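Chapter review: from sequence to fold.
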Amino acid sequence: MKDQLKDGEAHVAVQPQPPASDLSRQIESAMVKEPLDRVRCIHLFGTFYRCNWWAPAAGPASRGGGFDWATATTHRVRKSTFLNASVDSGRLVIQESAAPVARD
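The token string follows.
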């Protein structure tokens, strides 16, 4: 690196920003859902998240249990939205970043 610096230039120490804590699970719990919905939220970057509302597809009832590969074949994304979330004074603050996309 020294050979890449010109005479008189100083080294600049860049401090990486600490990663934002992942609030995905708290956001999922806070979202309003219909009775059969499963809300899944992922942390994109910084304070931005994407949430999908999964609902059973029309047809035979799906089996209960966890969210696994079979769910993807028996459920569909009913709604999807981008969120901006943070914690302020111990409270979860969620703001919608874009208009929700409803799929019918």
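Two observations follow directly from the output. The helical segments are 24-30, 69-74. Residues 36 and 42 are 20 Å apart (CA to CA).
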